[in-house]
Model the fold of this input.
Amino acid sequence: MKVRRIPLTALVTALVVATLAPPPAQAFPATPKSTVLSYLRSITGVSIVSGQHNKEPATAPGQYTRQVYDVTGQWPGLWGGDMMFNPDDVANRQRVIDQAKLEWAGGSLVALTWHACSPTVGATCAFGGGVQTQISDAQFQQVVTGGTALNTTWRSRMAAVVPYLRQLRDAGVPVLWRPFHEMNESWNWWGNRPGANGSAKLFQQMRDYFDSQGLDNLIWVWNVQDNPAGGWANYYPGNGYVDVVTLDAWYKNYPSAGDYQQIQSIAAGKPIALAELGKVPNAALLSSQPRWAYFMIWSEQLRGTNTNAEIQATYYHPRVLNQGEVTLGSGPPPVTSGKIRGVGSGKCADVAGANSANGTVVQLYTCDTNGTAQGWTVGSDGTVRALGKCLDVAGGVNADGTRVQIWDCVAGSGNQQWRYGGSAQTLVNPATGRCLDAAGQGTANGTPLQIWSCTGNANQRWTIPA
Done:
């Protein structure tokens, strides 16, 4: 039973509907699914894409993604949605598809889950008794046997979602498609049936049908929950049917070492991912289990089980890729040089007196034409350099108001790592989780730069060399 799917209150819905649009940047063009799969393979063991699920209502398909931005100033690198089950949400499936297109255009990968109603009930249903329900073994065998009444009903349900998925295909949007999730669990009507004629057969038949409908944009994601009973391979549809192997962690906060190994054994080299989590991955998990290609936090669990500090620590972690950092087919970001301009002040980040000595203050100053004091190089290694030195958090102190300076570059130093959030226009030091900030929201020449808790204020917004 998934008690976490609690309906939203009208108040929360009203508050978030007005702010669910993602950033308008056109980051991803039409792309075949092979490009996304190649990308997930390429980052395995190196990076992990951040993700956020967005559950019902379908009229607010970006509400939880927006909450991530409100807390971190970053948009997730993966947006998750659902094809829904209850009447009002099914009637608004188009809103979900439109959001998926917007998220893709903004530079986020797209994932869809489907909480499908049992073919023994109506085409729309309540969660309890419709999705969270049991059917007999005899009924299940009718569902997977061609020509039976239940099989005909189920094929009509699949046919109803095909036009929506075709829209994404026609728009060039690959979809991490996760049907029949938590296949080893008994809370749903499709699960807890191991073996060749069990739950895996339902997955195989859907793929065969959707392939016949030309849905070649679907990346087929197989999923189990971290049930300690194990034996997850007994539900696996086979390598020819699965593109990505995923785990939901609900019995415990994070997968155990044994869970991690079991998933890798089943995947046999395919990308693996954490398709549902309540707790955001911490540094210890990211270090000890580096092969997860993406994670997705479940809707209300984002703030329900995580503090703002925990969410920020994850989104600012050097291995975590957010929107704007997912670079399909383009390799590492190039080294770029030029000025760093304050959006609120119109002035530039400047090394005081063009002095290259260690500890020289970095300040705001009127942007000049040729001065080396404002010539910054932004590299793919996470450093920001001027005058042969690195932008540095003085002493590596994790406190609001710590000054920013230049210092000899030290490979791997957390003091000298910076991440630019393109949509938020922030320069974040992941080691401290704080933003580059013009002190006191000042705009005068000589205003020193410092780190400060990220607020989204104009004095923390910058444009960097492109």
Summary: The mean pLDDT is 90. The longest helix spans residues 149-170.
